[in-house]
Amino acid sequence: MTPPADQSAIKRAATPLPLDEALVDLRDQIASFRFVLDAPGVDEARVMQQDLLNQLDDYLLPRVRRKDAPLLVVLSGSTGAGKSTLVNTLVGERVSATGVLRPTTSSPILVCHPDDADWWLDERYVLPGFGRVPGPAPDAVVGDQLVIMKSDVLPKGLALLDSPDVDSVFEEHHEFAAQFLAAADVWICVTTAARYADALVWRLLHRARDHGATLGVVLSRVPEGGEEIVGHFAEMLKDNGLEQAAQFVIPETTVSGGMLPSEAADEVQVWLSGISEDEDGRAEVIRSTLGGVLDTFRTRVPELAAKVEEQVALRTMLREEVEGAYATGLAELDEATRNGSLLRGEVLARWQDFAGTGDLERALHAGRGQTGHRGNRRKRTPTRVRALKAALRSALESLIVAGAERSAEEVVKRWRSRPAGAMLLEGRDQTLDRASAELPRRVTRAVSAWQDHIADLIRTEGVTKRSVAKFVSYDEDALALVLMVGLFGFGTSDIAVEGGTSAVPQRLLKALFGAESLRSMSAKARADLRGRTGMLFDEEAIRFGQVLDGAGVPDETTPVQLYQATYNLEVAR
């Protein structure tokens, strides 16, 4: 029932659920998701899902809750097969339209004993999605409604439903036919001697077999001397695993008033009467069909779960595309903050102004005492220090925003290259390929906080080497800027620095704090910057996760819940 890989995820219930509750739970799980992402076989998966829901709503739940409900016999077949004629013959009067105009059955006709009419007119029971119209009704009734006809000829406890043609030119008729098949206690396929080998006939028969229906087949319009046709049809049934179906032959004969001669349908009439009037026969049909349908769920629901797992795999792939694009952007940003490329233009000019005019030298104070500003005296930050700090902040902010822009662009490019991703992006706000409008504001806060963190590191961990501590004190804010310039790779780029000052940050900081302390502060500062940037990128990536969630793409819990519900159903049986 459940693939071995999923067994560990299935929790066995302490006490089995009643069968109807297990079916309701399974129905809820099947209805809880949609097949959203475009993938091979997704249309078939949607049909599979709807078929299961139809059979639960239209047959299983009503039948389990009311085993005494009338039996539903659905007659189906291709256009012109003669099913309406057969219904009229079994009833003994013209209740369903026949004729050369195709399709002749526009709305489904249900014929029942008068004592059962109230049951079939109640929309709470079988086929709850259909409206009910008391008959007789005009031949041309159209719509998703059942026309309920009464007939004293039919035995109590049995109803005949003349389904629309399965190959009707009307698309909704195909859906009706599938839904009626799912709701049937007994399903009778009507075909002709001329068309019994058509692929459509066998698709119908296979579907009925796979859905667990009690099955009858009628081969009509068999010409005189057509024993070879009858024999060949029986062989085909056997070859397709359908030899257990009740088989009936109706010879070519005259149709009058929309009916066959009564004797032509005698065998079908006797079979149906035996099913409805004999308690054992009725119980056997219910047991056989109910059990057969439930048996099919052992494979059909896991097959559906496997299709859901394909959607989950696509969801995972799309998420990985998002993660990959932003991880690449983060790696590029990390490199750009190491290789000196950030220290150009305004930043370089402000650094040279700071280092070459004496402000850097004044940041170091000769004499004994504690590091930093003495006592509680407040000292005004030099203009060049403020300008350098602002230039560094602005350059880093621009670099982060540009990296986020490229990452968003890359995600959209990757998604558009895949059918599933392209479908998700279709008709959506095109701003997804750019950074969010809130990002610059968040980046400004993050970079300012990082600069403050650097100053705190200098203040709390920048222990001056003993060899220079008794001679030098320093300004934490100014040295924090020196550390930032060193972190950003000053002297590693191809920029020519006047006066041979390319290694000033590294030489100064190493001489002041020592190599080990400098490595520790640098590592912590770089990790903090990467962490803050990573959080910004994660927040940007959330937009794409919201697209997946908003579209209703199933997550990894959905197939597990389907397997669990299937297991619970098996225990409940």
General description of the model:
55% of the residues lie in helices and 9% in strands. By secondary structure, the chain is an alpha/beta fold. The strands form two sheets. It has an eight-stranded mixed sheet, with helices on both faces. It has a two-stranded antiparallel sheet with strand order 9-10. Helix 7 (227-239) links the parallel strand 7 and strand 8 (246-251). The radius of gyration is 39 Å and the shape is rod-shaped. Residues 4-9, 99-105, 366-378 and 494-502 have low confidence and may be disordered. It comes from Actinoallomurus liliacearum.
Summarize this structure as a short list of keywords or feature phrases.
eight-stranded mixed sheet, 573 residues, single chain, 19 helices, alpha/beta, Dynamin family protein, two-stranded antiparallel sheet
